[in-house]
Amino acid sequence: MAAGDRQTVDRLQAERPMAAEELQRGSVRQLFATPGPVRTTLIRLTITWLCYATSFVATNVYITYWLTTVKGWTASQAATLLLVCGGIGFFFYLLGGLLGERFGRRNVLVISGILVGPLNLVLFLVDSHVWVAVVFFLVYQATNGTWSGAGYAYQAESFPTRVRAPAIGWMGAMFVGGLMLGSLLWTVLNEAWTLTVAWLVIGVAVGIAQGVATFFLPNIRPGQELEQIAT
Questions:
Q1: Which of 66, 135, 185, 224 is deepest in the core (most CB within 10 A)?
Q2: Which domains, from first to last, does the chain contain?
Q3: CB atoms within 10 A of CB 2
């Protein structure tokens, strides 16, 4: 098509019928420029993933620094906690995937999302090492295993085949963008105020926003083939 070879295009279409002209409409810019359910879904997912990745900075990127500075843990204790959470967390990826297949991936995202902000608040309030460990374990699984086990498959099933690749590529950029935004906020808030303010804003407030955003995602019925999903 790029070379203008219509004869070859017609021959290939005869072998495998498809709307070849539609291939020219698969860019991210066109996804946002074209009104309809695809653009709506992409915007909602963008907001959700930006909130998710921004809050993720507090609970997964700077967490060792926060545990040692605010909660009085040693670096060794924090490392052990993360190792245990990550090791057991492998099974929560499987759990998130299984629950998504059974009850719908959006529903798993809703439950995982609404837990993040409140759990981060509880984590901020408790002081006992045991309770910090228990609550953080739950935070870790909600922000990693169950969220990812359902979330990235949900991205794929949210878009028709023709635009799936650019849409998911965009979503990958939104995750990185959220990490950058969260890191910037963490640095500014920590420098201008305190770690307490940084945690309450990024971990709690943005975490709550993440949970709220999941309610606006399309609810896709589980058990369908990709091409059965109308978007």
A1: 66
A2: 1-27 (no CATH), 35-228 (1.20.1250.20)
A3: 6
Q: Taking the model in full, what pTM does it have?
A: 0.86
Question: Per-residue confidence of the chain (231 residues) as pLDDT tens digits?
Answer: 778 898 898 888 888 777 666 666 567 888 888 888 889 999 999 999 999 999 999 999 999 999 999 999 999 999 999 999 999 999 999 999 999 999 999 999 999 999 999 999 999 999 999 999 999 999 999 999 999 999 999 999 999 887 888 999 999 999 999 999 999 999 999 999 999 999 999 999 999 999 999 999 999 988 877 767 754
| Rounded CA Rg of the chain | 21
